Amino acid sequence: MAKSDNRYTRGLKSNTTAGKDASRKSKRDTGIFYGDDPSDVWRVTRLASINAMTKTLDSYRSKHPDEDLPQSSSLIAKSYEEMLHKKYNDSLSGYKLRFRKDLVALKNSKTGFTHDLLFGVMKVEDFIKLEERDLVPQIQKEQDKKLLEDELKMKIGKNLPSDINQIKNNKVFVGEKWGVSESAAKIDPDFDVE
User: Fold this and answer.
1) 66, pLDDT greater than 50
2) 111 in the same domain as 40
3) How many CB atoms lie within 10 A of CB 21?
4) What domain range includes position 134?
């Protein structure tokens, strides 16, 4: 009996013997590992996002103790999380991605979102409705716009010739044939042009 090639079965055996750890290696599109209870993963993720949001808002409070902030950090965090969960309840990956972007925007003092949420200038509903491009500070938007305009001007500007015959230098055309040019004839007085 011939010995079979067991390269493929070896990997299968090691995955089945690994048990629970092997099932964690493959992911679904939802961002939840196989073998995990989706409701438990969502619960833990939602609690972690509420805690992170509350911590960020409280950090702003501690940096500005003289300001009387009417909104509660924990209430803002809870309502934010509920609205975010409602928006992304079918995709844990989408939920986490948007949460991270929102958290970075809140931690960036140049955006002013934390101040606006705590003072009630901006509602949580309005913050959730913001598109990702609106989460960057105004200064960053202006820099991006300027870079885009400069890049566009460079693209539209002077196009370089694709052929050496298109280059003009002091009204002298450079010729490709035989490597001889009109300018060489002007340099050498013994050169016969005719």
Assistant:
1) yes
2) yes
3) 10
4) 33-156
